[in-house]
Write a structure and sequence with these properties.
Elements (H helix, E strand, L loop, with lengths): L2 E7 L2 E6 L3 E3 L2 E4 L5 E4 L4 E7 L1 H17 L4 H14 L8 E6 L4 E5 L4 E2 L5 E5 L2 H14 L4 H15 L8 E6 L1 H4 L1
Antiparallel strand pairs: 1-2, 1-10, 2-11, 3-4, 5-6, 6-7, 7-8, 8-9
GO biological process, one term: proteolysis involved in protein catabolic process
Enzyme class: hydrolase
Pfam families: Proteasome
């Protein structure tokens, strides 16, 4: 179980996650890295669910990014289509967030591709706690995206027994800042 949250604010997109790996009600590891930066395409990914399944999805997503020359939307659509249509992949138990400088998407095995309306989205067992905290912080503070992600993950870790405070946080600047 885990918590992954993404916040898009001003010229930043930030994805963060905790490091807890649980097997049933037992914490097996506290330092897993569930947020990764794909430097070649300037994309951040985060996953929740079965680790082996999530790594399989990460590999497939990277292949789709290559195939679509870094076009994140086409890669996301192709991954969702493949994930939903393949009998073996359909059994994978994971969710995935992907973000580049301009877009953020949640991808599920049921074929869902969700782009958050307000720039805030979360997945995992503590996802709803982190989502609520991030939305409140975005609406009621001037914190930067990175600080919102960090504080919302800390709040989730204080509430959710399947989330810890060993955080991995990655960020990108938007193309507006690059101009």
């Amino acid at each position: 179980m885990t918590t992954i949250v993404s916040v898009r604010r001003d010229d930043q997109v930030v994805v963060g996650g905790d490091g807890q790996v649980s097997l049933g009600n037992t914490v097996m590891k506290g330092t897993a890295r569930k947020v990764r930066r794909l430097a070649k395409h300037d994309v951040i990914t985060g996953f929740a669910g079965s680790t082996a399944d999530a790594i399989t999805l990460l590999d497939l997503f990277e292949q789709q990014l290559e195939k679509h020359q870094g076009n994140i939307f086409n890669a996301v659509v192709s991954l969702a289509r493949e994930w939903r249509g393949d009998r073996v992949l359909r059994k994978l138990e994971a969710l995935m967030l992907v973000a580049n400088k301009d877009k953020t998407y949640l991808i599920s095995g049921s074929g869902d591709i969700i782009e958050p309306e307000d720039g805030v989205i979360a997945i995992g067992s503590g996802g709803n706690y982190a989502l609520a905290a991030a939305r409140a912080l975005v609406a009621n503070s001037d914190l930067c995206a990175r600080d919102v992600v960090e504080k919302s993950l800390q709040i989730a870790a204080d509430i959710c027994v399947f989330t810890n405070a060993n955080l991995t946080i990655e960020q990108l600047q938007s193309t507006a800042a690059d101009a």
